[in-house]
Amino acid sequence: RRKWGKVLGVLREVEEGCETSVGRLKQVVDAMAVEMHAGLASEGGSKLRMLLTFVDNLPSGSEKGTYYALHLGGTYFRMLRVKPEGQRSLALARDVERQLIPQHLMTSTTEDLFDFIASSLKEFVEREENGSAFPLDRRRELGFTFSYPVKQTSVSSGILIKWTKGFAIEDMVGKDVVDCLQQALTRKGLSMRVSALVDFPSLVNDTVGTLALGHYHDADTVAAVIIGTGTNACYVERMDAIIKCQGILTSSGGMVVNMEWGNFWSSHLPRTSYDIDLDANSPNPNEQGFEKMISGMYLGDIVRRVLLRMSQESDILGPVSPKLLTPFILRTPLVASMHEDDSPDLAKVAKILGDTLEIPDVPLKVRKLVVNVCDVVTRRAARLAAAGIVGILKKIGRDGSGGITSGRSRSDVRIKRTAVAIEGGLYTNYAMFREYLNEAMVEILGEDAAEQVILEVMEDGSGIGASLLAASHASHG
Ligand code: ADP
């Protein structure tokens, strides 16, 4: 008894649960814009924290010098050296080294994590400056990109609010992130200036780094989005719109706001029982709801949960494989490989089901069904991310809807050319995700407005951007 009917029922239910019609996406757009307002109006006014970054000027393209940057992401830790030469059009000379963050350090102590970072950085600097006479204890400028929610009090200090993306180092919550790094650098005998300089943007959220690199290349860049292990966004807001924080004057009259949009929530988000279970079994229930539907850390596990249910309801996947019961065993890059398997017999799908989930000899019809599940989950994620981006554009009047100047007919509304910097392994490596996101942008904005909105991929943007911010402040500030 194969019980196809049951399985198709499960599929249909998932499809319905993940429904993202343009109408619904537009509701998500509106909800995002409304929550942004609320988060700017008062502390705790929204699930969107809308954190101040104290970055008020973005790189102009004229920066010069040699700068280091460090980026602690969700999966990788990156070290960079960047040498801008004062001309926007020139390719940026850069060296980048990437390391997997050892799993045990994610749940260890602050000291263990930062000692590891400081030692790696020391070795990187030694390799980079091999043969030069610049002693290790001479000062170097370092931009630090930290991709977890931090409450900043200035550009050179910030307190960790909470961990996300699988990190859980309890003794660090509430500590100053820059202090932790600075102390480890001192322990390792490496002199790098993470703070000290007046107005030195030493500590930046990764989205802010991405925005900075985007702005270095294209002055029309107003927002940045990261879609990797986790997801987040930032954008340039007018100071007078940041009602919760009056009295700060910036030379540009604006400031970059770190939305922490992974924590966005709205009743309009299409939520399934699989999302509810994933959330309930996560270390941070009721938090990062948007992120749990969108980002690379979670997509694979949503797919696994659907396959598990199908396996429990029928015998199309044989006896329920214990692997299917193992959380996070199916990683998002594997979902991408299955989804994008273009071989006629879906050989890659069969191989991944066999190797990773230990489900052997899956017939073609069932392989197709698995591809279907990957498609539904990824399509929803990409379309919701697109709605989030349009939500930001709407908040700052760049979505072509005309905002308050709505006297003119809709076709008269001209939208200014607008660039959004985008980064992250899910967006850059997963072509289907990218296509679905781009397609939804056009559906929501309409073709005319969508033509004026450019999504620009910033490779290693968060790290490079952080060092450019350091450069920008050193040369103008
Ligand atoms: P991080 O967010 O950890 O700083 P990245 O931006 O490089 O780093 O994102 C890495 C994440 O991107 C991985 O956790 C994974 O979920 C996702 N990813 C990487 N490669 C692929 C791929 N080929 N297909 C789909 N997702 C991918």
UniProtKB/TrEMBL annotation:
Q: Keywords in UniProt for this one?
A: ATP-binding, Glycolysis, Kinase, Nucleotide-binding, Transferase
Q: In which pathway does it act?
A: Carbohydrate degradation; glycolysis; D-glyceraldehyde 3-phosphate and glycerone phosphate from D-glucose: step 1/4; Carbohydrate metabolism; hexose metabolism
Pfam families with a match to the protein in the record: Hexokinase_1 (PF00349), Hexokinase_2 (PF03727)
Cross-referenced Gene3D superfamilies: 3.30.420.40, 3.40.367.20
Q: Which residues form a coiled coil?
A: none
Protein name in the entry: Phosphotransferase
- Where is the Hexokinase N-terminal domain positioned along the sequence? 11-216
Q: Which residues form the Hexokinase C-terminal domain?
A: 223-471
Q: Which domain of life is it from?
A: Eukaryota
**What are the EC numbers?**
2.7.1.-
**Which top-level enzyme class is recorded in the Swiss-Prot or TrEMBL entry?**
transferase
Family designation: Belongs to the hexokinase family.
